[in-house]
Amino acid sequence: MRLVVAECSVDYAGRLSAHLPPARRVLMLKADGSVLVHADGGSYKPLNWMSPPCSLTEEEPDEDQAAAGVRHVWRVRHAKTDDQLIIRIHDLVIDEDVELGVDPGLVKDGVEADLQRLLAEQIDLLGDGHSLVRREHMTAIGPVDILARDAGGAAVAVEIKRRGEIDGVEQLTRYLELMNRDPHLAPVSGVFAAQEIKPQARTLAEDRGIRCLVLDYDAMRGIEGGPARLF
Amino acid sequence: MRLVVAECSVDYAGRLSAHLPPARRVLMLKADGSVLVHADGGSYKPLNWMSPPCSLTEEEPDEDQAAAGVRHVWRVRHAKTDDQLIIRIHDLVIDEDVELGVDPGLVKDGVEADLQRLLAEQIDLLGDGHSLVRREHMTAIGPVDILARDAGGAAVAVEIKRRGEIDGVEQLTRYLELMNRDPHLAPVSGVFAAQEIKPQARTLAEDRGIRCLVLDYDAMRGIEGGPARLF
DNA sequence: ACGTGTATGTCGAGA
DNA sequence: TCTCGACGTACACGT
């Protein structure tokens, strides 16, 4: 990786056009050709960037640019989409090459898959007498997270999200419409389960007769007796 | 900003838990306290990070850590959510402080707002004899991008996207359902307008009687006589 | 390669 | 402050 601090201006042309006026910024040029332009604020998103696959070429500044103090022009071209990033360097403050090697990568825990597994194991959170039919029940338009039966034996389709928003309700609605056309399954009721359910999503769900269920991940995990937190 | 290259391991605990095994990585410590951990690949997203507002504190490594070669322990705490990032430094390769100043910021052009403005100005792209009623027509569940009337005076609701996907069709469908219940407006027909419409979205839209309209941004802009591209 | 669903999404606008 | 929708979303996964 090449780490650069420079006075520079940047132009992007691709799905939109964007321009950065001259200022001092940090440039990261990664081994795969990708480039990140960072300022001293914002969060992890760069001000501007080019994602791989792409390639960087150095050009000579033309007369106008040279007169305006441009020392180097870097053109980064996306290999497939023709998106371009042009970086005009006025002043190089730091320019370091660093050898990083291949990263062993991130290990994650605690996403939707866990919620689904835990709810399948603790299926009575849906209500007394519920039983699991299966996880990832396939339908023509995709898999329903959990298919269960209630105490009376009626089918229950469960859509699980970490955060329940309006999209998830739409998704579950499509599944329910389809499943209710299947005489072997109908009538199918819906449960929208999430760690947190946004008011608009709850309103829409309940308006459509879909039950909302807020999941307490820590409690579900505690019951299961999972590994302790790292710190 | 502080730019660091270091052998380090990283742990995150917050909405999920995540761990990075020891390796050489680039750390960006921004002025607002936020931290980014980058490897030499991936795209602009860091392997791990903490977004502002947050604060960094340095701790002494305990005996076990010191024995394992840990020289420094940095703890980054989110001010509101208690998310934590712990960085254990085994080896500092580069450690530079850089003064960047406030960035003048990004200037954008060519997003959905432009499409909406241009279509409102060139409303006959919807068909001969169409007239604009208003942009951002409010309904109970949100604003419709454009409300127009066709040659016969019937209401037309337009949803505009840069890229037309299934979500946009669902959104327009909700608006149409609602608006068609209003006797002052009904019958309202729908137009789904985008620079590019995905086949599945087109199929769903047409199945629901919604017309699809592909917008040529460059042509619309050309007619308007906007500024030339930067390069 | 394309479509779908998730994300520690991030970011900006509006209430 | 919170909520919602857009994003150059990116990313993993299944077909």
From TrEMBL, chains A, B:
**InterPro entries given for it?**
Endonuclease_NucS, NucS_C, NucS_N, NucS_N_sf, tRNA_endonuc-like_dom_sf
Per UniProt, the keywords (alphabetical) are: Cytoplasm, DNA-binding, Endonuclease, Hydrolase, Nuclease
Localization, UniProt: Cytoplasm
Q: What class of enzyme is it?
A: hydrolase
Parts forming coiled coils: none
Q: Which Gene3D superfamilies did the record assign?
A: 2.70.180.20, 3.40.1350.10
- What region holds the Endonuclease NucS N-terminal PH-like domain? 2-103
UniProt-recorded Gene Ontology molecular function terms: endonuclease activity
Q: What is this protein called?
A: Endonuclease NucS
CDD domains linked: NucS-like
* Superkingdom field: Bacteria
